[in-house]
Specification:
By secondary structure, this protein is an alpha+beta fold. It has two helices and nine strands; from the N terminus they run αβββββββββα. It has a single domain, classed as Jelly Rolls. The strands form two sheets. Strands 1, 3, 6, 8 and 9 form a five-stranded antiparallel sheet that branches. Strands 2-7-4-5 form a four-stranded antiparallel sheet, with helices on one face. It starts with a helix and ends with a helix. The relative contact order is 0.28.
């Protein structure tokens, strides 16, 4: 029975993998991981979990619609629960970037990206899908915001 249950769970997880994109990495107080994508518009949910209970990780979401300067759509952090989440309504066509870093200690993490547009859920693409230099403005603001969170947390 256990073998059938595990197999069923794995099949369900594999079938739903197109609904969300999960990235994994490892950060510390001196390292920031960044992810970039072109938003489809609608509600975006980014959830992050990490392994080290002694680490304080955070993430920053910055988007640019090409008209105004890039703006911060959300900041999320957590410590004891090892969990952080950002919910944001992002306009279609915006170039977005997520920065993941640590305030205290380091840890491996898993970040799950989910976009809900017109009732359909899908995962975000990676930076390679964007034309060169599309992310320059977002990356610069993202780096500034990550440093601001670190300074404010000291």
């Amino acid at each position: 029975m256990r073998k059938i249950l595990v197999t069923t769970v794995l099949v369900l997880l594999m079938a739903s993998s197109g609904a969300a994109k999960t990235e994994r990495g490892s950060v510390n107080t001196a390292k920031t991981d960044m992810y970039f994508w072109l938003a489809d518009g609608g509600q975006s949910i980014i959830t992050m979990m990490w392994l080290n209970g002694g680490a304080d990780l955070f993430m920053v979401l910055v988007c640019d619609n090409g008209v105004d300067d890039p703006i911060t759509f959300g900041v999320a952090a957590g410590s004891l629960k090892k969990f952080a989440r950002i919910n944001a309504g992002i306009p279609a066509g915006a170039v977005c970037g997520l920065g993941v870093s640590a305030i205290r200690n380091g840890s491996q993490y898993f970040a799950s990206f989910l976009a809900e547009t017109d009732g359909v859920a899908n995962g975000y693409g990676r930076q390679s899908a964007l034309p060169p230099h599309t992310t320059d403005g977002v990356a610069a603001v993202l780096e500034q915001q990550v440093e601001r969170v670190r300074r404010a947390s000291r």
